[in-house]
TrEMBL record:
Species in which this protein is naturally found: Colwellia maritima
Descriptive protein name: TetR/AcrR family transcriptional regulator
Signal peptide: none
InterPro entries: Homeodomain-like_sf, HTH_TetR, Tet_transcr_reg_TetR-rel_C_sf, TetR_C
Alphabetic keyword roster: DNA-binding, Transcription, Transcription regulation
Stored Gene3D superfamilies: Homeodomain-like, Tetracycline Repressor, domain 2
Residue ranges flagged as DNA-binding region: 29-48
Domain HTH tetR-type: 6-66
Parts of the chain that traverse the membrane: none
Keyword Ribonucleoprotein among UniProt keywords: no
Length: 194
């Protein structure tokens, strides 16, 4: 039957994230994905029709997990500590990548978004979701009298900062530089002393 998957889709999507991250969208072929996942190329086409559709599924899988991760990192009751922990964890994830693939949403998605309107729309939704999570946490910090800034504009700034830091990591591979950037950002954010 068409579209019935006889493979572990989550495992295939996780492997596809690594392939797209390593090779980029343009250089990745369905044959590459078949080889790395161990799923026949015909089965991948049967399940996903083409590389763009598979990439959209991979990106959705990645962003769902990433947004849950971000939300979890921001759970600390002290807002400044929550954002400090978030930044440190992002830094460790990026710098701990032994293969130096970089951030999936920075490397592969930007390349793909230029070619496919559906992928561009998925990227916009991801960034908006990231912004919503950060804004909610900042609004809670305002209610708790821990933060005196504007939640919306600060959330947008933080989204830009986290995406920009992924680029910095790709260029320098330097934990100290990333730590300095995050510490500077936190120092300029209007948190109240607790």
């Amino acid at each position: 039957m068409v579209g019935i998957r006889k493979f572990d889709e989550e495992k295939v999507l996780d492997i596809a994230i690594a392939v797209f991250s390593s090779k980029g969208f343009n250089a990745t072929t369905m044959q590459d994905l078949a080889k790395e996942t161990g799923v026949q190329r015909g089965s991948l086409y049967n399940a996903y029709q083409n590389k763009n559709v598979l990439f959209l599924k991979v990106f959705s899988h990645y962003t769902d997990k990433f947004l849950i991760f971000i939300e979890g990192e921001l759970q600390h009751p002290d807002a400044k500590k929550a954002f400090t922990q978030l930044f440190k964890t992002i830094e460790n994830r990026l710098c701990g990548d032994q293969e130096k693939r970089g951030c999936f949403s920075t490397r592969a998605i930007m390349e793909a978004a230029q070619q496919c309107p559906d992928i561009h729309l998925s990227l916009a939704r991801f960034l908006e979701g990231l912004e919503v999570i950060m804004k909610k946490r900042l609004e809670q910090a305002i209610k708790d009298q821990q933060f005196i800034g504007d939640a919306q504009s600060t959330a947008r700034y933080l989204v830009a900062l986290t995406r920009g830091i992924a680029v910095i990591e790709r260029v320098y591979h330097d934990n100290a530089r990333m730590t300095e950037i995050y510490q500077t950002a936190l120092a300029f954010m209007p948190f109240r002393k607790v």
